[in-house]
Specification:
Oligomer: single chain
Helix content: over 70%
Number of domains: 1
Number of helices: 19
Structural class: mainly alpha
Radius of gyration: 21 Å
CATH class: Mainly Alpha
Largest sheet: none
Shape: globular
CATH superfamily: Hydantoin permease
CATH topology: Hydantoin permease
CATH architecture: Orthogonal Bundle
Number of strands: 0
Strand content: under 5%
């Protein structure tokens, strides 16, 4: 079987922006700020940063090291360093990307629909009643297909011509939109009440196991860990990249976008007196409460609403590209298929798997819990054990291009002890919740 020469990023900037694009997605634009407000405000931010540094960055660096060192997609990369007995972990990564994208693109389809509503007619007070019609049925499936088609087109165009070019164009636009909306939100009367709720500090809430689980889950999902996305992107890197610097830059940019998004969302909601309508559903708050806020703004709400959902589309698209790339790269490496063929076939299969999520938000929610609570956390735990205990001399791999770094022994210590302990505990707490959600769905 003849495999073509492996593609490479044309620049460090292109790789970093693509990796940040993978990390920055729908979770940054609402879920982070929602969890921050629910779980102690600034205290939760401190916990999230701690989890990111203790768990997220070490696992991110491990994925980058495996990908760059092996120059292979997840399945073959793990076989390269650990033998065939570690092949199932690679398949788990591919399955995670496949499953997450199947419902993630349904939600992304909603953002396409909402951006169109904002642009054409603007939001009105009936948006809450319209949501159930928008979120499920043939219309939802059609926008899901449209989003998947765009994702397939980008991935099918290659690393340089598709993924990197898209990141170089769209990520700066995303940063500008989010920062501009934050500045606008700060000018609204009553915005201070939103800041008070978002940034209130209550360390007592951090004593809850649920808060730790949510912080770890947010860190993993937001950084695209446990699904092989960063590993796959790193397989297109040259040997001279400074992986520790790249890891910190990716994690920092991801956190910055999430934090600034909170400075957009909460001032708007509280300035317009809609705080009581924020329910326990993060999806409902994003697609019901915020559009109602835009409707309250009048004509300017059409512009602000369009820009907000345009930012969501950019974040969703760059994340979806990384998820599909995991599947496509593994198919290319495993079956020897050309990129376009692999992208089209994988895209069709993922779109078909998303059909149940497009017809039921309950199904979508359960699939989301399975993917986040089991696949990502389980995959991250197994990867930490692999690099910490199985992989031969991982420090030698990560040191290349970063010879001046002196804390790699501490990095491996975290992978051996701290990361498995934290993720094992969180996984233990998450399994019953996931199981109950599955039972409720079929009861």
């Amino acid at each position: 079987m003849n495999h073509p020469a492996r593609e490479q990023w044309s620049s460090r900037r292109g790789f970093v922006l693509a990796a940040v694009g993978s990390a920055v997605g729908l979770g940054n634009m609402w879920r982070f700020s929602y969890l921050t407000a629910e779980h102690g405000g600034a205290a939760f931010v401190v916990l999230y940063i701690g989890i990111t540094l203790l768990v997220g960055v070490p696992v991110l660096l491990a994925e980058l090291a495996i990908g760059r060192g092996s120059q292979r997609s997840p399945i073959r990369a793990l076989v390269h360093y650990g033998g065939r007995r570690w092949m199932p972990l690679g398949f788990l990564f591919v399955a995670a990307g496949f499953l997450i994208l199947s419902y993630y693109s349904v939600i992304a389809g909603w953002t396409l629909r909402y951006a169109g509503i904002a642009l054409v007619s603007g939001f009105d007070s009936t948006i809450a009643d319209q949501f159930s019609e928008i979120a499920t049925g043939w219309d939802a499936f059609a926008f899901h297909l449209a989003f998947m088609a765009g994702t397939v087109a980008i991935v099918g165009s290659g690393v340089k011509g598709g993924i990197e070019r898209t990141a170089l164009l769209l990520m700066p636009i995303l940063f500008l939109i989010v920062c501009g909306l934050a500045v606008y939100a700060s000018t609204l009367d009553g915005a201070g009440r939103g800041y008070d709720v978002y940034l209130a500090t209550d360390f007592s809430k951090l004593l809850s196991f649920r808060v730790l689980k949510d912080a770890a889950g947010q860190a993993f999902f937001s950084l695209s860990l446990g699904m092989g996305a960063m590993l796959t992107f790193a397989s297109y890197l040259g040997r001279d990249h400074h992986l520790p610097n790249d890891s910190m830059l990716i994690a920092g940019a991801d956190l910055a976008v999430a934090f600034v998004a909170g400075l957009v969302v909460f001032p708007m909601i509280f300035a317009l007196g809609l705080s009581e309508q924020v329910s326990g559903s993060t999806v409902g708050a994003l697609f019901i409460t915020l559009p109602q806020a835009f409707a309250e703004m009048g004509a300017v709400g059409r512009v602000v609403g369009f820009l907000f959902f345009a930012a969501l589309i950019v974040g969703a698209l760059t994340s979806a590209v990384s998820l599909l790339e995991v599947v496509v790269a593994s198919t290319m490496d495993g079956l020897g298929w050309p990129r376009r063929r692999a992208a089209v076939v994988a895209g069709i299969a993922i779109a078909a798997l998303g059909f149940p999520s497009a017809w039921s938000t309950e199904v979508l929610g359960v699939v989301d819990q399975i993917a986040n609570n089991l696949f990502l956390l389980g995959g991250g735990l197994a990867l930490a054990v692999f690099v910490g205990w199985v992989m031969r001399d991982p420090i030698a791999q990560v040191t290349i291009g970063a010879e001046g770094v002196r804390w790699f022994s501490l990095w491996r210590f975290f992978l051996r002890f701290a990361v498995p302990a934290i993720l094992g505990f969180v996984l233990f707490q998450a399994v019953p919740d996931t199981w109950n959600a599955v039972i409720d769905l079929f009861s």
